[in-house]
Amino acid sequence: xxxxxxxxxxxxxxxxxxxxxxxxxxxxxxxxxxxxxxxxxxxxxxxxxxxxxxxxxxxxxxxxxxxxxxxxxxxxxxxxxxxxxxxxxxxxxxxxxxxxxxxxxxxxxxxxxxxxxxxxxxxxxxxxxxxxxxxxxxxxxxxxxxxxxxxxxxxxxxxxxxxxxxxxxxxxx
Amino acid sequence: xxxxxxxxxxxxxxxxxxxxxxxxxxxxxxxxxxxxxxxxxxxxxxxxxxxxxxxxxxxxxxxxxxxxxxxxxxxxxxxxxxxxxxxxxxxxxxxxxxxxxxxxxxxxxxxxxxxxxxxxxxxxxxxxxxxxxxxxxxxxxxxxxxxxxxxxxxxxxxxxxxxxxxxxxxxxx
DNA sequence: GATGCTATTGCAACGCATTGCAATTGATAC
DNA sequence: GTATCAATTGCAATGCGTTGCAATAGCATC
Lengths: 173, 173
Hints:
The structure is a homodimer. By secondary structure, chain A is α+β, with helices and mostly antiparallel strands. Helix content of chain A is 33%, strand content 18%. Chain A has helices at 37-43, 50-60, 68-78, 84-96, 136-150; strands spanning 65-67, 100-104, 110-114, 120-125, 131-135, 153-154, 160-164. In chain A, the strands form two sheets. In chain A, strands 1-3-2 form a three-stranded antiparallel sheet. A three-stranded mixed sheet of chain A has the order 5-4-7. In chain A, β2 and β3 form a beta hairpin. The longest helix of chain A has 15 residues, at 136-150. The radius of gyration of chain A is 19 Å and the shape is globular. The termini of chain A are far apart. Chains A and B meet through α5, β6 and β7 of A and α5, β6 and β7 of B. The first copy, chain A, binds a DNA duplex through residues 42, 45-49, 51-52, 67-69, 72, 81, 83-86, 88-90, 108-110.
């Protein structure tokens, strides 16, 4: 999606960089700021609408993980007229743009998180329901094994692993 | 599909052990046959009902993987009065007994499969939507890594991995 | 066979997410 | 500023799965 490429829109929209994020994050190259999102949308023939603006506002105030329903709820706080389907469709668009990513939790619900952040999977304990993140380094053995044996490229961000954590696992072996 | 035990096509989702054959399978101790299920239920203070009998009938004719909705549908073929919630609740019970196991697919739907079968995870290609099974041997690197680093015991049967298969992955790198 | 306890069912309502379609509206060209 | 095109929205309906609760019916006991 042409990260860091063409400066498309000069307009006043870019001035709305409300969140003075520390730019220069080395982890994720092209997602330095959300201020250029309207331009990126238009560059793809997509549109910048009040509803999308609102969801972005919500996402800016979001850290960690949220379910789809939670995002809908927060949008409703800003605008009670929020329509769920619009939120979900916008999330799809944002995922295409690399702004958010989503996975399914062990209970089947959707879980979104906001980029930039290193791509990671999730580890759920079915005993105490705690959750952890699994980064590429930790998952590397699996990624390597599947790549070697099948040429399969794992999407780490969709990886949800469940099991028993050290505290909940019976002290066998 | 009768559980005939024919070798199934080699493609995605390979054959699983048929139910009728190979009793005394050392892998799964207590599930030698379903004939004693009524007794096992009663031994736990549970009950043997026509609805459960029917679901078992459906499961006996099931190979591979089914979604919850598919099971409901098949039950409805036998008895149009089937109530979805009863089916799902019975599946919960059967899972507790080790008769079936379930995981969530990448699209969030529930996916059940019938035991006995070696515990395995699933591999989904987001490009061509094919699916494969991942057995313990293949996942061993991950299982070992998580056990070592965190003492975490992975439930392989709940493992759903998505990504791009060898055919769909761009030939880069 | 009758009784009593309670697991289970049926039903209705709910929650989360998706989809189809007509109406709206953002972005561009004139 | 106005016209034009299609992306997007709002809305209603749908699908899958869960939950609460009153009524039913296994099953053990007498």
